[in-house]
Amino acid sequence: MRVPLSWLGEFVELAPGTTPEDVHAALVRVGLEEEDVHTFELSGPIVVGEVLSFVEEPQSNGKTIRWCQVRVAEGDADDAVRGIVCGAGNFFVGDHVVVTLPGAVLPGPFPIAARKTYGHVSDGMIASARELGLGDDHDGILRLSTIGVEAPVGTDAIALLGLDDVAVELNVTPDRGYAFSIRGVAREYSHATGVAFRDPASNVPEAYTGALDGFSVAVDDQAPIRGRIGSSVFVTRVVRDVDPSRPTPPWMVSRLKLAGIRSISLVVDITNYVMLELGQPLHGYDLDKLSGGIVVRRAEQGETFVTLDGQERKLHGEDLLITDESGPIGLAGVMGGLDTEITAATRNVLIEAANFDQVSIARSARRHKLPSEASKRFERGVDPRVAVAAAGRVAQLLVDLAGGTPDTLGSTFTAAEDRQPILLPSGYINGLVGVEFGDAESRSALAEIGATIAESENGLLVTPPSWRHDITGKEDLAEEVARILGYDRIPSVLPVAPPGRGLTRSQRLRRGASDALAYTGATEVLAYPFVSAADNDLFGSPQAGGVPAVKLANPLDARSGFLRTSLLPGLLEVAHRNVSRGLTDLSVFEVGAVFRPSRHGAFGQAVLPAGAVRPSDAELEELEAGVPAQPQHLAFLALGNSVVKQPGQPAVTAGIADALEAVQAVAVATGVEITVSQGSHQALHPGRTAMLHVDDVLVGYAGELHPAVAESANLPRVVAVAELDLERVIALGDAVPEAVGIGTFPAATQDLSLLVPVDVPAGDVLDAVRVGAGTLLEQVRLVDDYRGQGVPEGSKSLTFALRFRAPDRTLTAAEASDAKLAGAAAAAERFGASVRD
């Protein structure tokens, strides 16, 4: 909201010398956010001049210029008359115009200086409205007589045209729609500074606010949204014999321009001006183009309507319309119709000031992509009690500026409900805010915002003012008292965390898993949860055939219309974006929810209850049953080089080993043992896929992307990936992992090479050795898988590095050897393994 200071000063007293920064500072104290300061960005000397004479001179380029003599000051001084070159041809001898003299600066910035052009020295410039920043149209030179301005030669044109005004811009939050008006901001400035507030709604002469009749208005809303009627107030008033060709006075043009609205025509400018002043959107109809009275109703199926911008709109059954006997004449609260617009031929104007349902207007504006100043105010809430004054104010300005005559024809429909009082218990404000506000000052603050107060046995009954739609409960009243009396009175006190609380076990372990991967050098990312059906089918299940997924009703991208069942599609998008920008060595991971509805669940069947009513327990249970399972998963991706090339070290390409290393880091962080076995997954390389288990429960997969999948994602051929059901991993663990003490006795290390059939998984052999070696075995690692000369055909040689340690003594070589042979015996029993010499 942009607020010109001259306009603000009509309703509150601005001390001499008040700057925009002072106004911003005051309004910030009562919770409004400062945004910017707007001016016309010009400086003098800019004066009123009189065209004494001109000579038209055709030029070789086909253009005709005028060499003008212009008086810019009274008297016989040498510089009282200036020679000026002008290319416009819409002015005449004797016209008073705006002259920018050398030294002036116009918006742009465009400095003015005496310069030689077309064979003359032009000692200044005769300005147009656009060059002065008053409008966007360039209709030639601004002739003061055409805008109803008379002033002596030499008068300062900046002050004359209101170009010395300045506006402060505020960021108005959606709950404070009343501040989208000079009236609302002036009231807030009064709260902040204590100066008196003069309500412009009460300054409209009584002659323009009296009751009218004779014009038929009916509200026939057969399909109210949330049970609320589409229009609760509808006021009409007629002004006859207006002259719409009259110019908008410059003071109004400059205020509208600073407020961010361009001048269009006098009648339209007046409705916009009053909207900004009082916060009530208004519309003017050409009365002679109406057929009968007005009916406010919902659109019918298949109905169309041409709006003021000339576009035919296909209407929806929720759209609220203003209609007469001919059909729709306005899309309520959004835009008027082309058939009843005000034109130069209009003589009789019907003024509409109505109050429409917030939700209905917001939906219509978004549905038809027609955001407007009116809809912006209606969807945030308009004071239902200001419509009569606003219609009267428009009528007053049409009489004063357009020469109209007020008529007794009109109507006032109102179904607005009175605000209900809110019980404010004794001591509630102090207990909530933590400040000892006195009863008297709390009452004073509530009265200051316009609330009415009555006594009750349990406290105060406070009725909020009609313009404060955001005040609905006692908490809001407490906030208002704190805001008006000053947020600076609230002490800053750090809360003390209660003992015995903190992160849950699951939260601690999830964070631990993230930290573990971050310590390895991987970067945590957040990918979009929206994916295609094909990606869900490919990554959501190890076998083809599709998985149930949640389809979005209104996706941002039609190609990604489902919620993810796996984190990997998002990581592939992240990897592709990084690779396309030259980051070819990558290690990333994500921890997030996936969405897994059951195939036969009730998802999507529940009907959402009305927003203004608390759902019943049965409705809540039905809604809860329709929410799909959302387990937390962890996914990892690596590509490029896991070890970069350096002196004495060749580059090492990331592969399945990196994925398994990430899995083991998560296992350590969560305190579980994840076993690895050969597996298959439709998205992974058939020979480089591992299934991950905890206690025989499948918790995920790791491996390398199938080359075809990597190619389709525009990624390198080798991409290591892993995905774990982190929620299940944590649930299968016993407790929060604890640090293991470091052994104080020396370790004994030995190697074991076993010959096994080539189809026996190495992981299974390692498990057999671990179990057979017993408690003295501290660690076992596979260090070699050899197939070639010296190994029988159909067999392979697996070499394991074993480390033994006892907690209470130094092991002998014999004890370590016995344990090793026990492990070999266990492998021989299970897989027919033999020790290789």
CATH superfamily of the largest domain: Phenylalanyl-trna Synthetase, Chain B, domain 3
State the separation between the terminal residues, measured CA to CA: 87 Å
Whole-number count of domains: 6
Strand percentage lies at: 25-35%
Helical proportion, percent range: 25-40%
Number of strands: 42
**Sheet with most strands:** 7 strands, mixed
Which architecture of the largest domain per CATH? 3-Layer(bba) Sandwich
Number of helices: 21
Rg calc: 40 Å
Class based on secondary structure composition and strand pairing? alpha+beta
Give the averaged pLDDT, no decimals. 91
3D shape: elongated
Q: Order of strands across the biggest sheet? A: 28-31-32-38-37-36-35
In terms of per-residue confidence, which ranges show pLDDT below 50 for 5 or more consecutive residues?
Answer: none
Highest-level CATH class of the largest domain = Alpha Beta
CATH level 3 topology of the largest domain? Phenylalanyl-tRNA Synthetase, Chain B, domain 3
Explain what you see.
By secondary structure, the protein is α+β, with helices and mostly antiparallel strands. The chain has six domains: 71 residues, Phenylalanyl-tRNA Synthetase, Chain B, domain 1 (2-Layer Sandwich), CATH 3.30.56; 115 residues, OB fold (Dihydrolipoamide Acetyltransferase, E2P) (Beta Barrel); 209 residues, Phenylalanyl-trna Synthetase, Chain B, domain 3 (Phenylalanyl-tRNA Synthetase, Chain B, domain 3); 64 residues, 2-Layer Sandwich (Phenylalanyl-tRNA Synthetase, Chain B, domain 1); 209 residues, BirA Bifunctional Protein, domain 2 (2-Layer Sandwich); 88 residues, Alpha-Beta Plaits. 26% of the residues lie in helices and 27% in strands. It contains 21 helices and 42 strands. The strands form twelve sheets. Strands 28-31-32-38-37-36-35 form a seven-stranded mixed β-sheet, with helices on both faces. A five-stranded antiparallel β-sheet has the order 5-4-3-6-11, with no helix packed on it. It has a five-stranded mixed β-sheet with strand order 13-24-15-23-16. The protein is elongated, with a radius of gyration of 40 Å. The protein starts with a strand and ends with a strand.
